[in-house]
Every structure is written in structure tokens, then in C-alpha cells.
Amino acid sequence: MDSLQKCSWMTLGILVFLTEPGLGSSIIEGPSNLTALVGMEAHFNCTVSEGWQILIWLFEGQPVLSVIYPGKVIITDQSYNQQGYNKSTMFTSELKIYNVQLNNSGRIECSIQTMGDSPYAFLSVQVSGSLNIKDHNLTIRENQTIEIICEAVGWDPAPHITWMVNNISVDNSNYTTNWSQGSNGLYNEESILTLTPLANSTVICLAAISALSKPQSAVMTLVVYPPPIDSEDDGHTRTIILAVVLSIVGFLLLILVILLIVCCCRRREGEWTGCELAIQYTFNPKHAQQITGSNC
Q1: Over the stretch 53-85, which tens digit does the pLDDT of each residue have?
Q2: Is 31 exposed, middle or buried (0-12, 13-18, 19+ CB in 10 A)?
Q3: Cα–Cα distance between 15 and 58 in angstroms, integer?
Q4: Separation of alpha carbons 103 and 85, rounded Å
Q5: Is residue 203 a contact partner of residue 147, using CB atoms and an 8 Å limit?
Q6: HSE of 246, CA atoms in CB hemisphere, 13 A
Q7: 37 vs 42: CA distance, rounded Å
Q8: CA of 174: how far to CAs of 101, 162, 218, in Å?
Q9: Strand 216-225 relative to strand 137-141, pairing
Q10: Which residues in the chain land under pLDDT 50?
Q11: Is the pTM of the predicted complex or chain greater than 0.70?
Q12: Cβ atoms 108, 59 nearer than 8 A
């Protein structure tokens, strides 16, 4: 429909209103506030009593669609359409807004051009962006403190970010969140969770806005391994083991020396002085030097 036809229909509607204003009609129920995601379809209802002649839908005060009794529709913006329903003496116009965008956010008004204020509602269009955790899978040492970063990019409004570990909500004192607005008007957000896991864990980052029926989520898996043996303790243990081994070896060598001396003495039974010298040298070298005689 071109602009001339639109103007003609609007003029006709105004003439209908002037000739039969329908002063006895009233709006029984007006539209309700709505929040929708970009790209979705938004619906608003306006129910009027009998006697109505024209019903006009307005966005931010500008007419976008009109319905003339008994149901002729004049569309002035192709993003809008409507479906009419009659029930008993009432008529309901269901306004449809296709493929809503951020610029569709604003005041939606229903008017039948009678005295009094026209009911209105607000459409809020939101953007659900991307959500991602850096390092989807991570292997760390038990009792090691780490920082996990969750990034939300291209949202409007800035989402509310929360965390869960093994399906248990994390206290907000354990993470910090900061946001910034990009040149495209959308919001970017970064949340940093500080965690010291003791066992394998599943970590979930959640981002919520009112247009989402449930939060968007990103998941990562933490694999935790036991800490290595402390190097200082390991060195101390090796020192103790070495000392014990050396003591045992020294004791065995002493026994071996004594056995050799005994064997030497038995081999030369008549040379007691030499044996005595060997034994004395083993246990008292200074005294043995003063003894003269034969050697074993």
C-alpha cells in the first residue's frame, strides 16, 4: 500500500470517527508491559466494548496501525500487523510486531479516540549475546588457588552473572564482575572466580536477563591431582636412609676386621705376641706401636 492509499484510509477513519464518535464505547483492557529478545515477535492486546468505530495503535505517540469498524485494517508500518477477535459485545485487537529490534523498545498505546487517557504499555527489547569460559578443561594441583574467567559479549542490558560449582551456588564474595559498553551500544562483561578446589569439579558460569526464561550457561571441567612430595622432606628422608645404611656397613666392616684378625691368630698359634699386637693395633693403635714381636 503506497503513501496515498494510507492517507486515504486514515482520512476515512477520521471521518468515521467524526460522524459516529462512539462515545459509548470504552477500553475494557489495555496492553501489558512486555520484554522480548531481538528477532522475536511481540504481541499486545487491547479489548474494547461495543460501539467503537476506530482503534488506533501508536508507538511513541505515532500511529502505526488502525482498525476501522467492523475490522478494516490500515497499516502504516510494515513491521506491525494485527488479528481481531469478537467475543459477545467486545472486540479485541492483538497487535503483532515482527522481528523486534532494539529501536522497537518504547511506549505502545491503544486509543479509540474518546475522552480520557488511552492505556499504554512498554516494550523492552533485549539482546542475548555470547557467553564463554576461558580454558574449558583445566588440570591443576590439589589445593592450588586459580582464577577462572567468564566472558559475556554483546548483551543488552548487561547480564547478571553468577557461578555454580558442582551444582552449588558460589557466594558473590568469591568473584568479581566488571562491564563495559562497546561502540555498538552493546555490553561486554567479565567475571573472575577465585577457586581452591580439593577434588574434580564442574564449574558453571550463568548469565541472566529478564527476556530469557532461564539463564544462559557456560561449563568447564576441573581435574585435580594430588600435590607432589615436598622436596625438603624428600631430601631429609634420603639423609636418614643414607646414615642408617652407612652405620650398618661400618658395623659389618668392623666385624669383618675382627674375624680376619682371629683367623690370622689361629693360623699362627705359637706366635701369641704377633696376635696380641694385631688385636692391640685394632683397638688401641698407640699402645700397639710399643709392642715388639712377630706379626700375624
Answers
A1: 999 999 999 999 999 998 899 999 999 999 999
A2: buried
A3: 19
A4: 29
A5: no
A6: 6
A7: 9
A8: 36, 10, 18
A9: parallel
A10: 1-2, 4-9, 11-13, 15-22, 272, 288, 291-296
A11: no
A12: yes
User: Which among 75, 60, 80 is positioned nearest to 120, based on CA atoms?
Assistant: 60
Q: Can you name the residues that pair with 204 across neighbouring β-strands?
A: 164, 219
Report yes or no: 52 and 25 within 8 Å, Cβ to Cβ.
Answer: yes
CB 130 within 8 A of CB 152: yes
CA-CA distance, 168 to 174, in Å (whole number)? 13
- Tens of pLDDT, residue by residue over 141-150, are 998 999 999 9
Nearest Cα to Cα of residue 49 among 13, 84, 91, 16: 91
In the structure grid, which three cell numbers stand for residue 168, read together?
552449588
- The x, y and z cell numbers of residue 39, run together, are 528477532
- 62: Cβ–Cβ under 8 A, 6 or more apart, which residues? none
SS3 of residue 98 by DSSP = coil
